[in-house]
Amino acid sequence: MRISSKLEKQLEEYVVENKEKHYRIAYSYVKNTDDALDIVQESIFKALISLNTLKNPEFMKTWFYRILVNCSLDCIRKQKKIITLDNEVLYSYIDEVNDTYTDIDLHKALDELPDSYRSIIILRFFEDLKIEEIAEILNENINTIKTRLYKSLDKLRIKMND
């Protein structure tokens, strides 16, 4: 089944206009430039392949975010056995590095949250999405998203107080 070139053009424009956001979301999951770029590329590929599943072009944003988040989570699952070095260890080997993180404790606390909670925090506060959009992206009930958001904020508050 051939997808209309109009829909392909809309997807292309959307991806190009929001490439920084897509990269930032992928990077927030994997904390690695190359992996984040691979995730964005894979997401675009999967979106092109499954463009016929997009029933309403108005929902392209949430549809693509779902693909992007799922690709990010797949990458994390594939790399569970890989041990990554903490950024502080890596930076200790570099001579002149300026720390750009002003809230490093927050980033560490976010990294310690389960994927399902971290996804909600990232999408809500870093990407400024509405609860309804997050529920659509993660394919969850709105009340589930609200509950997880509350629990994740509570866990972050406890970790930050420690």
Automatic annotation (TrEMBL):
CDD domains: Sigma70_r4 (cd06171). Gene3D superfamilies: 1.10.1740.10, Winged helix-like DNA-binding domain superfamily/Winged helix DNA-binding domain. Residues 18-81 form the RNA polymerase sigma-70 region domain. The keyword Acetylation does not apply. One of its GO terms (molecular function) is sigma factor activity. It comes from the Bacteria. Residues 105-156 form the RNA polymerase sigma factor 70 region 4 type domain. InterPro entries: RNA_pol_sigma-70-like (IPR039425), RNA_pol_sigma-70_dom (IPR014284), RNA_pol_sigma70_r2 (IPR007627), RNA_pol_sigma70_r4_t2 (IPR013249), RNA_pol_sigma_r2 (IPR013325), RNA_pol_sigma_r3/r4-like (IPR013324), WH-like_DNA-bd_sf (IPR036388). Keywords: Sigma factor, Transcription, Transcription regulation. One of its GO terms (biological process) is DNA-templated transcription initiation. The keyword Transcription regulation applies. PANTHER family: RNA POLYMERASE ECF-TYPE SIGMA FACTO (PTHR43133), RNA POLYMERASE SIGMA FACTOR SIGV (PTHR43133:SF60). Belongs to the sigma-70 factor family. ECF subfamily. This is Sigma-70 family RNA polymerase sigma factor.
